[in-house]
Amino acid sequence: MGELPYDQVRTLLAVVDEGTFDAAAAALHVTPSAVSQRVKALEQRTGRVLLMRTKPVRPTESGHVVLRLARRLAALEEEARRELGIADGSGPARLSIAVNADSLATWFPPALTRVAGDGRVCFELHREDEAHTAALLREGRVMAAVTSLAEPVAGCAVRPLGSARYLAVASPAFVARHLSDGPPESLLPDAPVVVFDRRDEMQDRFVRALAPGRSGASRHRNHIPASEGFCAMVAAGLGWGLVPEVQAEPLLRSGALTRLVPRRPWDVPLYWQQWKLEVPALALVADAVADTAAEFLTPPTPRHSPGRS
C-alpha cells in the first residue's frame, strides 16, 4: 500500500466534516473534481472504499480508521505550527469533545470556562449518551470524551472523574396519584415514567435493582431528549424519573419534587478518555475537566450503577 499522502488524508477529513464534496472543495480552496480525485486515489491506495456517497457522506469502517489518523495528524500539525510561530492566524486550537447531556447541563460548562478565557482554545461539542460517547472516539470524530466506559479505547488514555449522582423523584401530585398506596418497590414498576430517549435504560435498571424479579420500568413512558426538559417534565407530573442531584436539590427544597427512595441514590461512574497525543491544549482541558469533576461529582463508591443506556 505504501504511504498515505497527507493531502489525500486531509481531503477525506474535510469531506466528512463538511458533509459533501462541494463543501469540502470550498473549505480547501480547490475544485470539487480535485477533491473527488484525491478521495478516489486514497481509496485505490488503501484498496478499500472509504466513503459512502450519501448526503451527507458517511465513512465506512475502513474510512473511520483513516479519519482517526487524519484528526491526529491535523492536531499535531496545528500544535507544531504554533510552537514554531508559523500559525496561519486561523484562530485558537479547536478541540472536539463528546459529552453526555446531563453533564453538559450541569458540571461540564464550568470546566470549559476555566480554559476558554485566554482565547487559545475553542470547542466543538458532540452531545451523546455517556454509554455511547466512546464510539465517537473509536470513529475518530472526537479527540476526547466523557464516558461511562472504564476500559480505554485503543490509542486513548483514561482517568476516572467520579460519579454523577441521580435521585429518583416525582412531583407531590404524581406521588399522591400513583405512589400513595404502598412502598415504592411495589408501585414504581407500574407507574408512568420519564425517560431520555429509546436507548435510555437507567430507570429500567433502577427498578430491577429496587425490585428484583421485575423486568423494568413501566411501558407507559414519556421520551424527553433534553436534560433540562427531562427535569421540568418530572416536576410537571408527567412521570417519575432519575434526575441529576444538582438539578433535583433546589426543586426538592422548594417542594416541587419529592424523593421517592431516599436511601437509594443511583451513581453513574464517569471517565475522561482522550487521544494519547502531546497536545498542550488537550492536556489543559483534561486537567480542567478533572478539577471541575472533583468539585461537582461524587467520589467513586464500591457499588457503581450503569448509565442511561
Structural features, described:
The chain is an alpha/beta fold and 309 residues long. It is 44% helix and 19% strand. The protein contains 13 helices and eleven strands. The protein has helices at 6-18, 21-28, 32-46, 61-84, 101-105, 108-116, 133-138, 172-178, 184-187, 202-210, 227-235, 245-254, 280-296; strands spanning 51-52, 58-59, 93-99, 121-127, 144-147, 156-170, 193-195, 221-223, 241-244, 258-259, 266-275. The strands form three sheets. Strands 3, 4, 5, 6, 9, 10 and 11 form a seven-stranded mixed beta sheet that branches. It has a two-stranded antiparallel sheet with strand order 1-2. Strand 7 (193-195), helix 10 and strand 8 (221-223) form a beta-alpha-beta unit. Helix 1 crosses helix 3 (32-46) and helix 1 packs across helix 4 (61-84). The longest helix is centred in the N-terminal third of the chain and has 24 residues, at 61-84. The protein starts with 5 loop residues before the first helix and ends in a 13-residue tail after the last helix. The mean pLDDT is 89.
Give a nutshell description of this structure:
The chain is an alpha/beta fold and 309 residues long. It has 13 helices and 11 strands.
- By DSSP (H or I, 4+ residues per run), the number of helices equals 13
Structural class: alpha/beta
Task: Give the H and E element order.
Answer: HHHEEHEHHEHEEHHEHEHEHEEH
Kindly report the average pLDDT value: 89
The major beta sheet can be summarized as: 7 strands, mixed
The coarse overall form would be elongated
Residues in β-strands, percent: 15-25%
Low-confidence stretches: none
Q: What is the oligomer described by this structure?
A: single chain
- DSSP E strands, number: 11
CA-atom Rg in angstroms: 23 Å
